[in-house]
Amino acid sequence: MKPAVYVKQKLMSFIVSDFRRAISRTRGRMQRGRQATVHYFHQIDDPYSYMANQKLTVLKERYTVNFITHTVSAPEARFQGDSSRFRDWSLTDAKSVAPFYGVELPQNFGEESLRKVGQTESGDRLRKQLGHYLSGAFYFEGEWYWGLDRLLHLERRLIDIGMSREPNSLCVPRPEAESATGAAAENVTLEYFPSLRSPYTAISFDRTIDLVERSGVKLKLRPVMPMMMRGVPAPRPKQMYIMTDAKREADYYGIPFGKIIDPFGEPVKRAFALFPYMEEIGRGVEYCSNYLRGAWAEGVDITTEAGLKSIVIRSGGDWQAAINRQDDWLSLLENNVKDMLDEGLWGVPSFRVSDASTEAFSCWGQDRLWRVETEISRRANANPTVTN
Hints:
CATH topology of the largest domain: Glutaredoxin
CATH architecture of the largest domain: 3-Layer(aba) Sandwich
């Protein structure tokens, strides 16, 4: 292993370690005033904030901590990923999940209402000081929780430290999918857009394939180039949150994560170059699964030929045959990205569920896998496969 790779591995592994999280929480606790406080950062015209705000009352009633709301402005463009799609996607996604969380969403959000609230400078300053960038987010003693999707982690933490009046349940649990197990969903297609350099893909790839196997949905595996290699910005605070949040989600699902070899740049290009061959021999799924596990959980040095070779062989491929292939893998990935962007998506993993009779459903994020399963289940039940 090259020294630079070794140093980066140690750094990234530390960032997602339980030890670093404990340090962060301890520092946050040491800054506590008279009462433990959850800080909530609310953007008045943000759909995620609007949903989160509806749960504040029940949270205040349940937990013996102080809740303080800070009004903030929209995230800076550099934190939005694709700023041209960020706002439209936020509203589309919020409308899709709001009913499952038992919250309502108005038809529109106006900038005029934001101006009526008044100044956001103090909230923006505190949010930045505490190391975050998004709205609709909660902060408690060294740790951030974005939106309704992460409130279960905050609640579990408050329960663990004895601050819940009803410690046997959560106010805002993650929605349960309408099970697609045994749905015989051969009439439904799932287009799956993963990236080999995505921690969120790494912690959800095998869960996605499990859904495919349980439901019988037709899978189209459509890998895409990593966002930062497509020019999508990711400032340091965003990278830090993504890594630590991915670890938190991995722990929740019992998925190994943390021995990391970052394949950014040429290493991931070399990996993608082998995908057409692996797909042709029917081992594309196994290849992606093993690569992600090797890079994000096992510390396999996939930046070297030996490491990549081990992944190919483990996945059932022939190394010499793989490297002798000269397919136009870049055009394949670019076409996948184009179709993903056409759906208003830019992040990974992304999903598109379709059938012959209904408009396609698209979403992105490993925390939307329950929504994907629900969509597959509903479509399979609405248009059952006819067998003779």
